[in-house]
Amino acid sequence: MNELITQINDAIWTYVLIGVLVACGLWFTWKTRGVQFRMIGEMFRLLTDSAVDAAKESGKPKKRDGGRKHISSFQAFAVSVATRVGTGNLAGVATAIALGGPGAVFWMWVIALLGSATAFVESTLAQLFKQHHKDSFIGGPAYYIQRGLHQRWMAVLFAVLITCQFGLSNNSIQANTICGAMQEAFGLSPLWVGAMLAGMALFIVFGGIHRIANVSAVLVPVMAVGYVVLAIVIIAMNIEAVPHVLKVIVLDAFGIEKVAGGALGAAIMNGVKRGLFSNEAGEGSAPNVAATASVTHPVKQGLIQALGVFTDTLLVCSCTAIIILISGLYDIPGLNGIALTQSALQSEVGSAGPDFVAVAIFLFAFSSIIGNYYYGEANIRFITPDTRVMTVYRICSAGVMVMFGALASFELVWNIVDFFMAFLTACNLVAIVILGKYAFRLLDDYRQQKRSGIKEPVFHRSQLPEIAHELECWE
Predict the structure, then answer these.
(1) At residue 267, does pLDDT exceed 70?
(2) Rounded average pLDDT over 274-296
(3) What is the per-residue pLDDT across 357-388, written as a single tens digit (0 to 9) for each?
(4) Res 61: pLDDT
(5) Tell me, what's the pLDDT at 148?
(6) Cα torsion for 170, 171, 174, 176, to the nearest 10°?
(7) Scanning 29, 121, 338, 407, which has its CA 20 to 30 A from the CA of 115?
(8) Cβ–Cβ under 8 Å, residues 45 and 457
(9) Alpha carbon of 437 to those of 31, 32, 340, 440, 473: distances in Å?
(10) What pLDDT is attached to residue 12?
(11) What is the 3-state secondary structure (H, E, C) of the chain?
(12) Bridge partners of 71?
């Protein structure tokens, strides 16, 4: 069964999704006039301002509109980065290099540069079509598919796929990686580590999006900064090897100098698959939390979410890749996943390397578990308001699937995730290609307001009269 799933995944990714992902990224980059490059300064400004505001609020959600609680723009960014910055950055990068060679890193960069434009479009649409919820905003692809395309069946299909992908199978990946790292570093039993993870996750997810947002806003900056600082120190210690590493990445990416991993196709396929798993651009996941943010214009959160793709792939993933390639351990048969990352760090910093990775992956992956859970919650609420269904989902997502991942094999959990990720991404890309025209118009409006001297652009639904009746918010 595992081999059959592998063959199906390879066929789907090789012949369909890679071309579609790149084509969509190029299309959105052209239509937005390179928003991910031209407006990167505005992205940092918006994120910094939101972070300052969040600090002033002492991590508590703001209250507006008659006492309704709202998630800040920074908190929404933190939750989305929590799901992006996880096993994909440590285990996923290692897997891509082990199976596709150093050239896979180059294709991870490509999919991130193009995918950031895709991320901008999908998150802007999520903000545009978001709806009021009892304690915050709620939205995502299922909501803009129903409101924008008027295709209830397609919206429900997406909601089911993302719940299976993130709320269930993706959480098994996080647990599998944590348990593997803990066993490698400390000899801890996967059964006991999985039980502890499940207990912690259940406590947090039963607290709702506000508890998830507050935990993520603390964990994400700490874990990301700590890991990046260590990586920079290692790279600085081996600075003379970096030019050679970059040369190997580029040559291997085009099959000029195949170092490991087989054919050129292996580098492209593994780079794109693991790049998408890590940064999630176009997958339709980040828009679910992007919709919860309280902003004055949909483009603001679109820009911030586009920055999240850069943070994930161009910064954190690159750090892992360079450390692995400097170590020279990537072509050892059988060394894969988190074990490869731990071995690479051990070769550079000594016996403390595996221990550090175990702690880092615990923080990375645990934050991903609670962030992934919320993606499923938002879409379960879209399908049904039945609280009993939500309770069952919470137990399955944070409890059952965490334990399954702790005990299942490395190959099985990754194959299940790749399978659902392919169909989920295809469903979302169809929707955002059709609805992208609204994101383009919103971006033009935002730029025009900025050019006229307005520091904080504001959107009103009357600016899109043909769909104003479909926009519940933006009064």
Answers:
(1) no
(2) 80
(3) 777 777 777 777 877 888 888 889 889 988 89
(4) 47
(5) 95
(6) -100
(7) 338
(8) no
(9) 9, 10, 43, 5, 19
(10) 59
(11) CHHHHHHHHHHHHHHHHHHHHHHHHHHHHHHCCCHHHHCHHHHHHHHHHHHHHHHHCCCCCEEECCCEEEECHHHHHHHHHHHHCCHHHHHHHHHHHHHHCCHHHHHHHHHHHHHHHHHHHHHHHHHHCCEECCCCEECCHHHHHHHHHCCHHHHHHHHHHHHHHHHHHHHHHHHHHHHHHHHHHHCCCHHHHHHHHHHHHHHHHCCHHHHHHHHHHHHHHHHHHHHHHHHHHHHHHCHHHHHHHHHHHHHHHCCCCCCCCCCHHHHHHHHHHHHHHHHCCCCCCHHHHHCCECCCCHHHHHHHHHHHHHHHHHHHHHHHHHHHHHHCCCCCCCCCHHHHHHHHHHHHHCCHHHHHHHHHHHHHHHHHHHHHHHHHHHHHHHHCCCHHHHHHHHHHHHHHHHHHHHHCCHHHHHHHHHHHHHHHHHHHHHHHHHHHHHHHHHHHHHHHHHHCCCCCCCCCHHHCHHHHHHCCCCC
(12) 293
| Tokens (6 digits) for 82 | 């929590």
Mean pLDDT in residue range 443-453 = 95
